[in-house]
Write a structure and sequence with these properties.
Structural class of chain B: mainly alpha
Number of strands of chain A: 0
Radius of gyration of chain B: 18 Å
Chains: A mainly alpha (123), B mainly alpha (105), C mainly alpha (167)
Number of helices of chain A: 4
Largest sheet of chain A: none
Number of domains of chain B: 1
Distance between the termini of chain B: 53 Å
Largest sheet of chain B: none
Number of strands of chain B: 0
Order of helices and strands of chain A: HHHH
Order of helices and strands of chain B: HHHH
Radius of gyration of chain A: 21 Å
Distance between the termini of chain A: 65 Å
Number of helices of chain B: 4
Strand content of chain B: under 5%
Number of domains of chain A: 1
Oligomer: heterotrimer
Chain lengths: 123, 105, 167
C-alpha cells in the first residue's frame, strides 16, 4: 500500500464520517422541531441543522467530488447557507417577538411518576 | 459511496417530511415560516446529494439558486405578514414603526 | 477605488467558479464578452449608488474575521453537542431563558457579526436588537453564562475593528 492509496482511503473515511455525522445532526434537528414544546425552543432545534449539519454534509460531498469547479460551487453553497441561515432565523424570531408572542419560560422537566398516575396531584 | 449518498438523500427526504408535518401542524404562523425555511435548507442539501448520485453538475447551480430564493422568500413572507403589504420600502418601515409606537432606534 | 477593485476581483472569481470557462477560443467566447459587460454594469451601478464602503466590501478585516471564524467553529461544535443532548433526552428537560446581553461595540459591522454569531451558535438566538444590548433567547439556563457572551463580544470587536488603543 503506497502513500497515494493511504491518502485516498483517508479521504474516503473522512467523507463517510462527515456525511454520517451530518445526516445524524439533520435528523436530530428535525426530531427536535417536532418535540420541543414552544416556538422559540423549536427555533433552536432548527438552528442545529442549519449550522453544523448542512456544513458537514457539504464538506463530505466536497471530499467526494473530484474536480475543482464542483468543489468551489459546493463551498459557495456552504458559505451562502452559513451567512443567510442566522439572518433568517433572527428574522423569524424578531418578527414573532415584535408581534407580541411571549416565550414560554417555564421549566419543562420530566413528570414525576406520581404525577403520571394521578393528574390532579401538583408537584 | 453511492449507497451512503442514497441513505443521506433518504434521510433528507425524511427530515423534509417531518418539516412538512410541523408546517401543517402550526400552531402559529411563525412555526410555519420556520418549518418552510428549514424545509428549504433540506431541499438544498437534497439537491447537492442528488447531484453527487446522478453525476449532474447543474443540480448544484439549482441548489445555489434555491438557497438564495429560500432566504428571500422567508424575509418576504415575514415582511408581508408584518405590514400586510410588500410595497413598503425600507425607509418607510422605520417611520411606520415609529408611528405605531414601537420606536426603538 | 480600492473597494471597487476588490468588488471586481471577487466578482471575477465568482464568475469563473460558476461558469468554468475562461478561454477566448472555442464556442464559449460569447460568455467572456458577457462577463465583461455584466461586470462593468454591476460595478458601475454599485459606484453610482455609493454603496461601496468598508461594510459592503469587507476586505481589510477579512483575515481577522477568518481567524475569528475558526474560533467560532469550535464554539458551534461544542454548543451543538450540548443542544443535541438536550433534544434527544427521552423526557424534555429544559429551562428556556430570555436574557439581555449588554453590547458595547464600536461599529455596525461588529454589532452585526456579534448578533449573527449568537444566532449561529445553537442554543442561543438573538431576538431583538436595541441600542445598548441584545435580547437573547436561550434554550437552557446553561447557555446564558455572561462570561461566554463577553468573550464572544471581545473577539468580534478585535476581529472587525482591530485592537482597542486604551486598555
Amino acid at each position: 500500500m503506497n502513500w497515494v492509496e493511504i491518502g485516498q482511503n483517508l479521504l474516503f473515511a473522512l467523507s463517510v464520517g462527515s456525511l454520517t455525522l451530518g445526516l445524524m445532526l439533520v435528523l436530530a434537528g428535525a426530531i427536535g422541531v417536532i418535540r420541543m414544546p414552544d416556538f422559540y425552543t423549536r427555533l433552536h432545534a432548527a438552528g442545529v441543522t442549519d449550522t453544523l449539519g448542512a456544513e458537514l454534509i457539504i464538506f463530505g460531498l466536497i471530499l467526494q467530488s473530484g474536480d475543482w469547479q464542483t468543489m468551489a460551487k459546493l463551498a459557495l453553497v456552504g458559505l451562502l447557507l452559513f451567512l443567510t441561515s442566522p439572518t433568517a432565523t433572527h428574522a423569524v424570531a424578531n418578527a414573532a417577538h415584535r408581534a407580541g408572542q411571549k416565550p414560554d419560560l417555564a421549566h419543562f422537566r420530566p413528570k414525576h411518576p406520581r404525577e403520571l398516575q394521578d393528574p390532579e396531584a401538583k408537584a | 459511496m453511492d449507497t451512503l449518498n442514497f441513505i443521506v438523500a433518504l434521510g433528507m427526504a425524511g427530515a423534509m417530511a417531518i418539516m412538512l408535518a410541523r408546517l401543517f401542524a402550526g400552531p402559529t404562523l411563525y412555526d410555519r415560516v420556520l418549518a418552510a425555511n428549514s424545509f428549504g435548507t433540506k431541499t438544498v442539501l437534497f439537491l447537492l446529494v442528488f447531484s453527487a448520485i446522478a453525476g449532474r453538475q447543474d443540480a448544484i447551480d439549482i441548489a445555489l439558486l434555491y438557497a438564495l430564493i429560500n432566504f428571500v422568500a422567508t424575509i418576504a413572507i415575514l415582511k408581508f405578514f408584518r405590514y400586510r403589504s410588500l410595497e413598503i420600502a425600507l425607509a418607510q418601515m422605520s417611520l411606520r414603526r415609529a408611528v405605531e409606537g414601537e420606536f426603538d432606534e | 477605488m480600492v473597494y471597487g477593485l476588490g468588488l471586481t476581483a471577487v466578482l471575477v472569481v465568482l464568475w469563473l467558479v460558476l461558469s468554468g470557462s475562461y478561454t477566448l477560443s472555442g464556442d464559449h467566447s460569447i460568455l467572456l464578452v458577457m462577463t465583461v459587460v455584466s461586470l462593468a454594469a454591476t460595478v458601475g451601478l454599485a459606484v453610482r449608488m455609493r454603496i461601496l464602503d468598508r461594510e459592503t466590501v469587507p476586505l481589510a478585516p477579512l483575515l481577522p474575521l477568518l481567524t475569528y471564524w475558526s474560533w467560532l467553529g469550535r464554539e458551534i461544535v461544542a454548543a451543538n453537542i450540548a443542544v443535541i443532548r438536550l433534544i434527544m433526552k427521552p423526557d424534555v428537560d429544559i429551562e428556556p431563558r430570555l436574557v439581555r446581553v449588554p453590547v458595547d461595540l464600536r461599529s455596525g459591522l461588529a454589532r452585526c457579526v456579534f448578533a449573527n454569531s449568537i444566532t449561529l451558535t445553537p442554543g442561543t438566538v438573538t431576538v431583538d436588537i436595541e441600542n445598548d444590548g441584545f435580547l437573547v433567547h436561550a434554550l437552557d439556563n446553561s447557555f446564558t453564562a455572561p462570561e461566554g457572551f463577553a468573550e464572544m463580544a471581545l473577539r468580534t470587536d478585535v476581529a472587525s475593528d482591530g485592537k482597542r488603543e486604551e486598555a
